[in-house]
Write a structure and sequence with these properties.
The protein is mainly β and 110 residues long. 7% of the residues lie in helices and 33% in strands. The chain has a three-stranded parallel β-sheet, with no helix packed on it. The chain has a three-stranded mixed β-sheet with strand order 2-5-6, with no helix packed on it.
């Protein structure tokens, strides 16, 4: 499994990495289904209904999308958005739907 980056989001920790050009946040395009976009440590809380927004906030605005192989046409939309370590609260405020587990625009947690 490949990992793009790791960030500690604990209160008072300033990341040495900035993913912006001053105006626009970075976008990461996955060209593999065997990649985890980010590893976040010490996340205070996540809420299922706003999970993508929460993760984008904790990464400094980074967005992600599925890439498409220009030769084979394979769409890489089965990558992992994030691994989270040190989560103190996870608020499940909506039903989980396994059918969206392979849709890169959605999140599924197990």
């Amino acid at each position: 499994m490949q990992q793009v980056f790791e960030r500690d989001v604990a209160v008072g920790v300033t990341s040495p990495i900035t993913f912006t050009d001053g105006t626009n946040a970075a976008t990461i395009t996955a060209f593999s289904n065997n990649v985890t976009i980010m590893n976040l440590r010490n996340v205070p809380a996540l809420t299922l209904s706003t999970l993508n927004t929460n993760l984008q906030t904790y990464t400094g605005g980074i967005t992600h999308s599925a890439g498409t192989d220009p030769v084979t046409g394979e769409v890489y939309n089965k990558y992992k958005t994030a691994a989270v370590d040190g989560l103190s609260a996870y608020n499940i405020d909506t039903d989980l739907d396994k059918s969206i587990a392979t849709d890169d625009a959605k999140c599924y947690n197990k």
